[in-house]
Queue: 3 jobs
Job 1
Amino acid sequence: MPEVRMSSPQGKWILFTTVLGSSMALLDSTVVNVALPRIGEDLDADLAALQWTVNAYMLTLAGLILLGGSLGDRYGRRKVFVVGVVWFATASLLCGLAPSAGVLIAARALQGVGGALLTPGSLALIQASFHPDDRGRAVGLWSGFGGIGAAVGPFLGGWLVDGPGWRWVFLLNVPLAVVCVPVALRHVPESSAGGRAHGRFDVLGAVLGALALGLVTYALIEAGEGSWAVVLTAVAGVAAGVAFVQVERRRPDPMMPLGIFASRQFTAVNLVTLCVYAALGGFFFLSVVQFQVVAGYSALGAGTALLPATVLMLLFSARSGELANHIGPRIPLTVGPLVCATGMLLMLRVGKDASYPADVLPAVLVVGLGLVTLVAPLTATVLASVDVSRAGLASGINNAAARAAGLVSVAALPLLTGMGPDAYRSPDAFDDAFRRAMVWCAGALVVGAVIAFTTVRRPAPDCTRPECLTHGSVTAPPLEGRRARGRLR
């Protein structure tokens, strides 16, 4: 049994290094969008290259995050966490030094691999190191500080872009890793699943899953060309997806056991997740560009503009979870997406010379209220819909589904809205496409609300309860690990 207490110096060092490591990945998932217009100008990149700058990271992160957790269980959670931090920092250095868009995209894909190693590893270290009496508090602090990192990220990114330049958005990770790695090696105890880790790693499943996402993403981004190569890529992506399902069905130790989807509640909530995070992925990708290209905001102003939504989540996500415990998840998971959809329709007011108090802030506040309403109940319902022994797996699948939804959305929305390769260089062209995109995002949220209303039911009295109650992540639901039984009424 782990014996590290929160009050001990070692406990504080463990919390410090895990928060610092996970914040690196969380910061990059929120700040890069702010830098996109400057990256495009500096590297003479078209819109497709900017899409890949975001999607290359999400592709490898979503495809490998489940495998990353399994590697930690087998080879040692501290070891894999440290490898992930070093890998992430090295890839960040390559991003910061990238001489071209192609090099930047490749380095971003490598960043996602590092993120897939360190993100689940940081939570696993906390759960494996702390005494059971302190574990819930430690996880709560970890998720809370991570939420603060998510709030600071766009502000910090905007300041860096306007000041020393966009490359420092990536280079900042290097000194953070220089601090994080020695502290982890000195103060964090090693742990693994020991005899519970058995079987082979599902490398084939991970490769097929990432390949399917990558090929479909490529086809969506390049679909405007209308070439046979795009059609063949799309067909190959679908074929890779079918092969992934077949491999997962037949393997004795699959990365994503398909039997978990036998729970209708789990399947339904993941469909809601796909709709919600597809909309959010498109919203956060396009909004910061709209603020800079059309409304004339600085990078700092664009990054700060969305801060109220994250602050609302930090302040009220725990209370939203408590409310869902009393009234059940169906109402929050129906109302939350509808509120978010209203906020995205309010974004139609954001045009040239938009006033922040009158045009931007009301929309951001409404989106934030919608997120407060739905994110915590969504996580709780995912955990409650499976056996306690599969809570960590269920959370990982839900987190990966959210990231995959954002990935596809960033690839598909420019196609659906008619954005050309140079749209972000033309305020009028981008503004027209942005307005159409907000309608698409609102529509996806309405579909999610309908699915929730018609399929989500009150969970069983004896079920798993989330520990990450305070959070501010807007790119994916918070990760949860193995849980003791609780009650979700």
Job 2
Amino acid sequence: MASRRLALNLRQGLKAPRAGLSLPPLRRGLATPVAAPGLKVQSTTLKNGLTVASHYSPYAQTSTVGVWIDAGSRAETAETNGTAHFLEHLAFKGTTKRTQHQLELEIENLGAHLNAYTSRENTVYFAKSLNNDVPQCVDILADILQNSKLEESAIERERDVILRESEEVEKQLEEVVFDHLHATAFQQQALGRTILGPRENIQEITRTELTNYIKNNYTADRMVLVGAGGIPHEQLVELAEKNFTKLPGTSPHTGAYLQSKKRSDFIGSDVRIRDDTIPTANIAIAVEGVSWHDDDYYTALVAQAIVGNYDKALGNAPHQGSKLSGLVHKHELANSFMSFSTSYSDTGLWGIYLVSDQLTRIDDLIHFALREWSRLSINVTQAEVERAKAQLKASILLSLDGTTAVAEDIGRQIITTGSRLSPGEIERIIDNITEKDVMDFANRKLWDQDIAVSAVGSVEDVFDYARLRADMSRNI
């Protein structure tokens, strides 16, 4: 539809000029896309096992380079939980080659951006700069990854910063609900722990634990150096060989490493934190989802898009597409809801996050949400599948806007699956998904499956687990 509107606008704009005006003939502009081999992702593995992957865009004036590491909070033990995130904070506090001031001044003088983040399975350090400054950025990334000083004074300063960050996270209800959802779904397992770690761990983490984490996890076989933008692949490989050849080749198979690679077991269960001072009920419900490399990965995303999202504060609230959003809006059951499909290396969580201030109608809201899940197993129309596929494709393409987003996509895919699907390949996979595929997925993954429930706030009227579980096999 959008392309037809665009064509119509172009035709209207190309009508004959008014008398007295002389326009030059139309010519093909310089923006014609070029299907050159250099536009594909290239990958090289160094002798020490480090993977170098890049997406070269010859007309880009900036580049993003970063290191994706196959280690996050999942690579910790219960005693060291929080170490990966703690290290992320210390990365920019000075190395044996650069003081913190020199590091900050160098990045500032380049006009570059340097950042890092930690997730349950990955730690990422990346920089965005002009193409000419990429060699310096790679040198900085290599320096902070291999030569961080981890001074006691910096550790103590960051300890207070992280404790304050922990307090802020505890005020964000969505973060709290999803942390509890992971904790109950993956009880007593690494995937169930928080990224920041418990406060007692943050207060007691030592330099020894930090250096041990680097030694055990920051190894070449678990790293990918990624470049996206105007940096040619050959140049990035040369920079990798210059800066990363001293990395240890393999990780020691410690107890924490073996546990992090052990498949997580999903446990049907619930956790409720009642706090009547919170005016809303905030509830997440999930079944075991799919991993990054599961054949059902994109089908799960299409099914999620069919359930959809809703926010009554938006102007288009009555017309947000999904059947569940229309029903929720008509009966004023919720402030908002968000369906999700979160994937990890071996498992995932597929579910819905509900927020409502209609506290006496929480049971209705949950009932209709779970009834919609049951419907996916029985009756899915072609129209809603096509709508969901269009939304999913648009969302994926829009998320790849810019070199940093492209680098993130390459790094995440290669570190988790070993290769990268291009947007075109992903689009073709999504195009081939049918309503039969969605119903088959729902029959295997949703119908009569155990659920994990996390509820925070005014949740007195949330039914007991057995009642909620019984709704997972309902004939519409």
Job 3
Amino acid sequence: MTAASYEDRVLYQGDVWVRLDTLPRLLAEGWRRTLSDGGVVSVIRTPFQWAMVSPVIEIETGGYQGDVGLYVPEVMLEEALYLLGAGEDDGATEDGQA
């Protein structure tokens, strides 16, 4: 079985969206909750469809659980990365000392 492959940048609903990562569906749903709580819109792309919302029933009943692409609008990319903690653990302290 071949792993899912998703483009880094796509045009979706008239806007440019950027892929944050390709990851298992359940992990992506957790990231989506973090993004949503921070006010960032996200969308999941499975090999079959785009999902703006993922009803719990779909996950519980065995909807697609493989690797998905997690996308955010390009204009919200920096905020999304901040919310997910990207680049926070670079070993430096607040005063710039490592």
